[in-house]
Design goal:
By secondary structure, the protein is an alpha+beta fold. Helix content is 46%, strand content 13%. A three-stranded antiparallel sheet has the order 1-3-2. The radius of gyration is 16 Å and the shape is elongated.
Length: 92
């Protein structure tokens, strides 16, 4: 049986799953761009947890693999800052 999560629940779940902060805006982005299907009743948006798992499994680590294929195995992925979330703040 499918497990449906609110956007807030999905961001909390994804944060725990990925061991990094995933915001509600990140989840909304996935829905908006068709990476996770939008479900809902009575104006409440939910996502299927399995959709999130599939998305994060396909994405997680794929960028590193693609770059290693292009640049070779001596690539120091720690210097990519791939694990750092972008911050948009006009006060910085």
């Amino acid at each position: 049986m499918a497990e449906f999560l609110s956007i807030k629940e999905a961001s909390e779940w994804a944060s725990n799953y990925l061991k990094k902060n995933v915001t509600t805006s990140n989840i909304s982005y996935l829905i908006q761009y068709g990476k996770a299907k939008k479900y809902g009743k009575n104006g409440t948006t939910t996502v299927n947890k399995e959709d999130l798992i599939k998305y994060y499994k396909s994405y997680n680590g794929q960028r590193e693999t693609n770059w290693r294929e292009k640049l070779g195995n001596d690539l120091n992925w720690a210097l990519s800052f791939d694990n750092i979330k972008e911050l948009h703040n006009e006060n910085i």
